Amino acid sequence: xxxxxxxxxxxNVFLGDDGFGVEVAKHLAGHLLPDGVTxxxxxxxxxxxxxxxxxxxxxxxxxxxxxxxxxPGTVFVLEPxxxxxxxxxxxxxxFILDAHSMDPELVLGMLESLGGKIGRVLIVGCEPETIEERxxxxxxxxxxxxxxxxxxxxxxxxxxxxAAPLPAAGRETA
Length: 174
Fold this sequence. Notes:
By secondary structure, the protein is α/β, with parallel strands linked by helices. The protein has one domain: HybD-like (Rossmann fold), CATH 3.40.50. It has helices at residues 20-29, 46-53, 84-89, 104-113, 139-163; strands at 5-10, 37-43, 57-65, 75-78, 118-126. Strands 2-1-3-5-4 form a 5-stranded mixed β-sheet, sandwiched between helices. Helix 1 links the parallel strand 1 (5-10) and strand 2. Helix 2 (46-53) packs across helix 4. The chain starts with a strand and ends in an 11-residue tail after the last helix.
C-alpha cells in the first residue's frame, strides 16, 4: 500500500530565515511528486494544518527553521516524540488555540483532540542565521534550500519503500 505523505513548509516569511520552510515548499512545488505525496506552504497557519491532517496521512514532514547551535544553513532531520504520554510527563495537557501559531506539538495536539492521528512525524530543519523582521532568507539559508528539498525527496522515497510489500517467497522481482 502506498503511504500518504504530507510535506508542510512552515514559518513566517516576514521574519527572515524563519521563511525557510516556505521556500523549500515553493522549491518542491516545481517537482513531479509520486502518488500519495502532497506538498504545501502552511506558513504560520497551524490551525489550518491540523484540519488538513484530518484527511489522514501516514507521514508528516515538517520543514522549518530551527535553532540548534549549528552554523547557519546547516540542514538536519529530527524525529521528535509528540506522543500523548510524552506531553503528559511534561505536564502539557492541552493547547492554546492560536490561529497564527505553528508550534508542531500544539498542531498535533489539536489534531488529536479533533480525532485525527498521524503515523510518523519528521522535521527537516535548517539553522537560521537571523530571525528578525525582514523579508528574504540570509545567503547561507537560501543556499540550503535546494539541498533541503532534495533531502525531503529522499525521505519521501525512503518512506514509500518502507511501505512497499516484500516480494512473495519463491518469486523473482525485476
